[in-house]
Specification:
Layout lengths: L1 E5 L2 E8 L2 E7 L9 H14 L16 H11 L6 E2 L1 H8 L3 H8 L8 H4 L8 E2 L24
Parallel strand pairs: 4-5
Antiparallel strand pairs: 1-2, 2-3
Helix pairs in contact: 2-3, 3-4
Length: 149
């Protein structure tokens, strides 16, 4: 794993084999140095500085079929836009609580697909908030990404 400072707090990217498996909030205890982790951090840095809108990284994010549907829906959120869990749930004909559950207690721990996908990257999925609302926590709730990746 390898960590980076972002405008929203520290993030740690984890790699297994030849793919990114997660992006978590916080600074990782161990700091590995691999070409893939260096590339992932370079792309995240470019993303947060507005120079990159899509990611090109190999991902191996595991999840249930429903989690994967949530993450795929989140990948379709255009760069710079936000959606609530309710918005995503409506697209999936599901419930906001189920979407939140698919993202986990930390706001999509494994959602690197939402933040780092080969398709459009999401800016944020925020529980109960819409773009322009003042959130108590200013970090985007994405993956992978996440995803997040």
């Amino acid at each position: 794993m390898r960590s980076i400072h972002t405008p929203f707090g520290d993030m740690t990217v984890a790699q297994e084999g030849v793919a990114i498996v997660s992006v978590d909030w916080g600074w990782g205890r161990d700091q590995d140095d691999t070409p893939l982790l260096r590339e992932a951090l370079a792309q995240l840095d470019a993303y947060f500085s507005g120079k990159l809108k899509t990611f090109d990284l190999p991902l191996a994010i595991e999840g249930t079929p429903f989690q994967r549907r949530v993450w795929q829906t989140m990948q379709q959120i255009p760069y710079g836009e936000t959606r609530t869990y309710g918005d995503v749930a409506q697209e999936l004909n599901s419930a906001a609580r189920a979407v939140g559950g698919a993202c986990g207690p930390t706001g999509c721990r494994s959602s690197f697909p939402a933040i780092a996908s080969s398709g459009p990257a999401a800016s944020a999925v925020i529980p109960g908030r819409r773009a322009g609302d003042q959130a108590a926590d200013s970090r985007p709730r994405t993956d992978g990404g996440a995803a997040l990746l």
